[in-house]
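Complex record, two chains
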Amino acid sequence: MTEVMPKGKLYESQKLALLYFWVALALFGAQILFGLLAAWQYLDPGFLYGKLNFMTNRMLHINAMIVWLLLGFMGGVYWFLPLELGREVVGIRLARFAFFTLVAAVGVVVLVYLLVQYGPGNAFTLWFITEGREYIEAPRWADLGIVAVMAIFLYNVVATALKAKRITGVVAVLMFDLVALAGLYTAGMHYTPNISMDQYFWWWVVHLWVEATWEVLVGSIMAMALMHLLGTPRRIVETWLYLEVALVFGTGILGLGHHYFWIGTPEYWLGLGGFFSALEPIPLVAMVVHAVYDAGMHRMQTVNQPALFWAIAQAFGNFIGAGVWGFMQTLPQINLYSHGTQLAPAHGHLAFFGAYVTAILTVIYMALHQVRRADWPRFDSKLWKWAFVLMVVSIFGMSAAMTVAGFTQTMVERAIGGSTWQAYIEAQTHPWFQNGMVWRFVFGVFFLVSYLVLLWDLATIGKGRAAQAKGVGAHD
Amino acid sequence: MEIGWIETTIGALFATAILTLWLSRGSGWLEPRFWRNAAWVSALIMTGILVYLTIDSLNQIREGSARVPAYTVINKAIGLKRDYEKHRDIPVIGDEVGFFGRTWSEEEAYALVNKGKLTLQSRNCMDCHTLLGNGAYFAPDLTRAWLDPKWENMVMSMTGKATKEEAMAEWLQHPDRYPTFARRMPNLHLSEEEARALVAFLKWMSAIDTNGFPDRFAGVQ
């Protein structure tokens, strides 16, 4: 391990990371709020009809998610990078500037989404209101801003490594991955009337971000986290990271083909996409094996209990959400009927939570340990367990409800009904589907409660007398 | 021999394995060096194949290709038929029937479909509907919307329009007036020009060969 800062002292880069984390958590709240509004509109379609339509709530729900996860990742990198390289991040003022610019830009985009919502069918709308392409709805000006912020971020990582004259395996993977990540985003900025070509490159952003470059980014962050959390030797962590990169890129890049089954692209994608995406769970299994081994070695005890549990949840969540729920519908023979049903969000919710939310929470708890109680041998509280259990239960509840609804659609609308407008209505009004939507909302409310408990714990852990006694007393 | 997806898959995996083993000769498979080699070899090989297939795919989905029709397809009758060899539905492009009572030249058809696509994005259709199965799930899939029987069975009489395209354009301008179930589409204030352009886009999209998705649309025979 590299040089350790004196206890209680933070690098400037780490102070900046805390800002990233708090804004990320606020946007996490926005994501939940707009998700609940959209979920309620399934139950009461008249709710906010014509004022704040489903499409707007849904856009805010998924866009808030993308931005807060990105902020969380950037915070994670700014937190660990100085520890990894043993020096302050080079362009710290630039990084601060990028942070405030990004936050201001997000504010403007959200206000436009809420107040303007949509525009006339011309280039102006695409540049200044919305591009109207799921996940990358952000108007073109904001796209350019995101690329600029990513470029600054990349520059900071590279320049710091050069200045430190030290490129670790983790940092090398990180740099390579960030180049791919920033580059891929530009694939989503072209306009074409040809919907097949539009979706071809749209997936370069949506899939190759989420199922390749984000997985590797989060892998690098978790690698740095595990070295500090469990004291795992660098040699082991880096070997696992390389293995993960080999498997994620080896399966995920051509696994992209599972989005090219039905968009007009040639038939060979049915085979290629089916085969490679079926292999995509393999790296996720490898991570579960590693997590079980680590947790056993440490008998579920470490310097930071909440971070350890969220790290284990990350390995399992990634495997179950991304791996199992993804595999469930990835073969073309099944996907022909399940594509575009509630099975997709069932998988999406579980996968994003399992792979990414948990990782960011791990890092935030580790950061709070250093910030608040660097002298504690063991960072712990009572409350985090409630947030942890309730959050995991409610995300599974939501996903289970959507899975039932999705199977109903697959059967009633697709397999039997012939996929028409009327068949859609029949599936949507089917009691199995409607029960699914009710339970999705109920678990959504639980999720909101667990978020509030989590926030309360993050705000208070390591503070106050009770916590102090517990932390010190837990030394063993 | 024609190179298909199985040959590509086996070739990619073999090439990755052999190149990794060759580059890592001298080190055991548990050493970091082995997996570092595996990481960049697999990233490079898979990216290379993706780039090659992208060039091929883009050629095959150019408008006017066998898979994605020219925009002038809006002048033609469009249907689906079952290909019993492949067991999937394929679009059939029929005779010239006109669109909104006239024939559209190549430039006019392009301009119209292009306007339709801009309208589609500006109204954020994808955050309720799916297109080619991608989007949100609050409203029906639009892949074959032009071919949906409901326009003729219900919407033409609802709107009192004589043709399907006119009924669709009218419905799109005032979806709040013509509910089909509890969930109504909101009025997104489409102009008549935008509504017609959007209908043209939907008609064009319904003629794309999607490898049979969605299966047996409206019970295709």
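Note: The longest helix of chain B spans residues 32-60.
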